[in-house]
Design goal:
The chain has two domains: 105 residues, no CATH class; 126 residues, Trna Endonuclease, Chain: A, domain 1 (3-Layer(aba) Sandwich), CATH 3.40.1350.10. Strands 5-6-7-8-9 form a five-stranded mixed sheet, sandwiched between helices. Helix 3 packs across helix 7 and helix 5 packs parallel to helix 6. The chain is globular. The protein is built from eight helices and nine strands. The protein is α/β, with parallel strands linked by helices.
């Protein structure tokens, strides 16, 4: 289930069959009990084809393409998507027979949210082409497009500072920002503590932690009371920052991440 509040995914197991509860409000009468196993899976952990499947217009369906079930099990247990390995046979229909349609719910054109599908595609491209130190290069380009002067640390040990950013001609005017970029798995509370420490040591006004793989619950708890000094950019936030500044991002980065704007009719009021 996609989490609208955090832009993450929740995975669980159904523990009961369907039942109808007439005494509940109209929108809450159709019940299936679920035991949620994890509610903090970042979308960046899921490969693009499986994100398309999870974006199906159907609320309940049986995914069949590209080892979807096995990959969801792996995501539940390990937090990573191994990707499609071998072609899977056609899934049986709900009536127990063989389905004649091998693309009914797994095709991207059946996504209920085209905007989210496009965002997921960009997210996947960034995850593949801007891994490791290259993600810091992308974040530097974003901050420069927003008017900061940036100094990016070279690859290798960086003392907890990947990017130093500030306003003014020399990048020394407030607000000064120290940025730490993590392109791997979920970030834990020690990374948050490290960023807070280097901010104090260097006298920075603000901190930015780019956590492409998301944060653990402990990390979120440790940063909750630092909202006026520290910002978190997860994968979706990086994509939003790219889209917000794309016209001003350097041509070199645009060449590595070619995007085009598409206008479509809104269904508001339809």
């Amino acid at each position: 289930m996609p989490m609208k509040t955090t832009k993450q995914l929740a995975l669980g197991r159904v523990t009961s069959g369907y039942r109808y509860e007439a005494e509940h409000p109209a929108a809450l009468r159709h019940i299936v009990d679920v035991e949620w196993k994890r509610t903090d899976l970042p979308r960046s952990a899921v490969k693009q084809d499986l994100l398309y499947t999870l974006g199906s217009v159907l609320t309940i369906f049986a995914p069949s393409k590209n080892n979807a079930v096995e990959r969801l099990e792996h995501l539940l247990q390990n937090g990573t998507d191994p990707g499609a390995v071998t072609a899977m046979p056609k899934a049986a229909g709900f009536n127990g027979g063989e389905s004649d349609d091998d693309s009914a719910v797994d095709s991207p054109e059946f996504s209920a949210d085209f905007e989210q599908a496009a965002t997921d595609q960009i997210l996947t491209r960034i995850g593949e082409d801007f891994a490791g130190h290259d993600l810091a290069t992308l974040v530097t380009a974003i901050l420069e497009a927003e008017g900061y002067k940036c100094v990016q640390a070279p690859p290798g040990p960086d003392g907890g500072i990947d990017i130093t950013a500030g306003r003014g001609p020399l990048g020394l005017d407030s607000p000064t920002v120290l940025v730490q970029v993590k392109s791997g798995s979920q970030v834990g509370s020690p990374v948050v503590s490290q960023l807070q420490g280097v901010m104090a040591t260097h006298g920075a006004d603000q901190g930015l932690l780019v956590a492409w793989g998301g944060l653990t619950k402990q990390a979120r708890d440790s940063i909750r009371h630092q909202s006026l000094r520290v910002r978190i950019w997860e994968a979706g936030d990086v994509v939003e920052a790219v889209l917000r500044n794309y016209d001003r991002i350097s041509a070199d980065v645009q060449a590595l991440l070619p995007l085009k704007r598409v206008w479509m009719l809104s269904d508001v009021g339809a």
